[in-house]
Automatic annotation (TrEMBL), chain B:
Pfam families: ETF (PF01012), ETF_alpha (PF00766). This is FAD-binding protein. It comes from the Bacteria. InterPro entries: DHS-like_NAD/FAD-binding_dom, ETF_a/b_N, ETF_a/FixB, ETF_asu_C, Rossmann-like_a/b/a_fold. Belongs to the ETF alpha-subunit/FixB family. Residues 7-185 form the Electron transfer flavoprotein alpha/beta-subunit N-terminal domain.
């Protein structure tokens, strides 16, 4: 089974600083692999191991993709090779642009049986790239998949919805977005990290995949920190704390 | 502020359609509901305020997603200017596939719509709740998914009628066979409506210890909610009970956060509480900056004392 896992590089959300004018500063935020995409990478590795298949990784985004630590970060989690399209034109890509660029790259990569995506990127979390990508590639498309079992040339998957779990038979090729509870991503060891440095990385530009001018249908106006309700911030300590809290709130 | 001519509304459960119909009325002149199900569901859509209904059929032994192609064809033919879709996993899959065909993106989980300069501006949370993103779509057909509580449903009017168009089923290109459906034993809990919520976090060492929080909740008539790791990871409480950007948004009079550190992703879900109480043993926990009253102390001593206090004072 030939598997490709898509992932996104996102800013570390813990390091985002709210400035006085309520805009967000990313100056101190390091780039990292999207948290939910790690589950997709792991799901790809489990399947490749179970079926004797191969798993590669693919990402599109800004120049930060070229960071060697991030490249090793993804390859040390198992994929045998990596494909990246790094262009600052794509840094603010919306879901349609992203899915279009991924689809173009995947076509250039050749045939595939399964594309895996995380449920959503841990920065913008629109949960749309997987569904759009599947449609653009014209294959079976599913989201919310929490379990994948290979059965011959098909997959049996569980899909966890709001109030039911669907068990489905999926023919390949397919694009599947997986949930965070599908697995526990492996932590790469020293050996994996060293091996990662030797794996092949292919970098293409937008022209290579023929997508220099995909329109971005979404226009961003602003991103500001949400209004915070003013809080009293009264800290109670010591013997009388419970009594005081009781008097203030529960009486 | 209706700037659109035709607004399509769709929810994968008809009872979720009421708020979307109300929203459609605010933003456009003609609200057309896409309804999948028996005749009664069509009637319901009219009672919620739909002006006309595109009846997709009766589902029967098909899956809801089998109608994606049918919806795509209908939208391509009728070209509504706006499509409002109720946020759910199924609907997000349908919305994404539809948008790809329309060569556009989906404005997801919209919390607020405003009309500015004849443009429809939307707001949604990004960066785990640290940011509120305002954006708009330049596409001819704007597709947005909307969560609960964004629009207020109109009063149901069973006398309303309208035009019904029967839509032909379009065979799915890649049918998926359903082997089994397991209903989740989710106790339906409506945290958003609770007047008082007790939230538990990773400060609790064992699942059994949650009885302490439940005792407090019973005493003060509260629902029990939690941080995400308690529901996803520990699985000590059902997912319906976790509060935050990816969980429930609560707006109680009192929110008592116990053993919760106060990460932004959690706090955006509780920020609308009138009063926030925090119990945490770490004086430096970020929750204290976002609370009205905080007790710095071990929950295993503070909670029993508070429960005792409330009991004797009753
Ligand atoms: C994209 C994204 C979305 C997310 N969405 C959500 C969401 O919707 N909701 C959500 O909740 N989280 C969400 N998270 C996770 C969030 O970032 C935090 O990891 C989570 O909220 C932390 O849960 P916690 O406070 O229970 O645990 P911790 O952060 O581990 O905090 C435990 C606290 O308990 C205190 N404590 C320990 N022992 C005791 C004791 N004996 N007595 C008193 N206090 C004690 C500690 O001092 C600590 O402050 C999301 C994360 C990401 C990246």
């Amino acid at each position: 089974m030939k598997i490709i896992t898509c992932y996104k590089i996102v800013p570390e959300e813990q390091d985002i600083v709210v400035k006085d004018d309520r805009t967000l500063s990313f100056d101190r935020a390091e780039w990292k692999i999207g948290q939910y995409d790690l589950n997709a990478v792991e799901a790809g590795m489990k399947l490749a191991e179970a079926t004797g298949g191969s798993a590669s990784a693919l990402s599109i985004g800004g120049k930060e993709l070229e960071n060697s630590k991030l490249k090793k970060g993804i390859l040390s989690r198992g994929p045998k090779e990596l494909f990246i399209i790094a262009d600052d034109y794509l840094r603010e890509a919306d879901t349609f642009q992203t899915a279009s660029a991924l689809a173009a790259a995947i076509k250039k990569m050749g045939s595939f049986d399964l594309i895996l995506c995380g449920e959503g990127s841990s920065d913008l979390y629109a949960q749309q790239v997987g569904p759009q990508l599947g449609q653009l590639l014209g294959v079976t498309t599913l989201n919310a998949v929490s379990k994948i079992i290979p059965e011959g040339n098909k997959l049996v998957v569980e899909r966890t919805l709001e109030d039911e779990v669907e068990v489905l038979e999926v023919t390949l090729p397919a694009v599947i977005s997986v949930t965070t509870d599908i697995n526990l991503p492996r932590i790469p060891g020293m050996k994996d990290i060293l091996a990662a440095g030797k794996k092949p990385v292919t970098q293409w530009c937008l022209a290579d995949i023929g997508t220099e001018n995909i329109d971005c249908p979404t226009r961003s106006i602003s991103t500001l920190a949400p209004d915070q309700t003013e809080r009293k911030q009264i800290i109670l300590e010591g013997e009388e704390a419970v009594q005081k809290l009781y008097d203030a709130v529960f009486k | 502020m209706g700037i659109f001519q035709t607004v399509f509304v769709y929810a994968d459960k008809t009872e979720m359609l009421a708020e979307l119909c109300a929203g459609g009325k605010q933003l456009g002149s003609q609200v057309c509901a896409l309804v999948l199900g028996p005749k009664e569901e069509v009637d319901k859509a009219f009672s919620y305020g739909a002006d006309s209904v595109y009846h997709l059929g009766e589902l029967k032994d098909r899956r809801i997603e089998d109608y994606t192609e049918t919806i795509i064809h209908l939208v391509q033919k009728e070209k509504p200017e706006l499509i409002l879709i109720r946020s759910s996993k199924r609907a997000k899959l349908i919305a994404g596939r539809l948008a790809a065909e329309l060569k556009t993106s989906v404005l997801t989980d919209v919390m607020e719509f405003t009309v500015d300069n004849n443009e429809l501006h939307t707001k949604r949370l990004v960066y785990g709740g640290a940011g509120l993103k305002r954006e708009y779509s330049t596409s001819e057909v704007v597709v947005a998914t909307v969560g609960g509580g964004v629009f207020e449903a109109l009063i149901e009017d069973n006398s309303r009628k309208g035009n019904i168009v029967e839509v032909d089923f379009v065979q799915p290109a890649h049918p998926v066979r359903c082997i089994e459906i397991r209903k989740k034993e989710s106790e339906s809990v409506n945290l958003s409506a609770a007047k008082c919520v007790v939230g538990v976090g990773r400060g609790f060492a064992k699942q059994e210890d949650l009885t302490l929080a439940k005792d407090l909740a019973n005493l003060i008539g509260a629902e029990v909610g939690c941080s995400r790791p308690i529901a996803e990871g520990e699985n000590w409480l059902p997912k319906e009970r976790y509060i935050g950007v990816s969980g429930a948004m609560v707006k109680p009079d009192v929110y008592v956060a116990i053993g919760i550190s106060g990460q932004i992703q959690h706090m955006v879900g509780a920020n609308s509480a009138k009063t926030i109480v925090a119990i945490n043993k770490d004086k430096a926990a970020p929750i204290f900056k976002q609370a009205d009253y905080g007790i710095v102390g071990d929950l295993y001593t503070v909670l029993p004392a508070l429960i005792e206090k409330i009991k004797v004072s009753k």
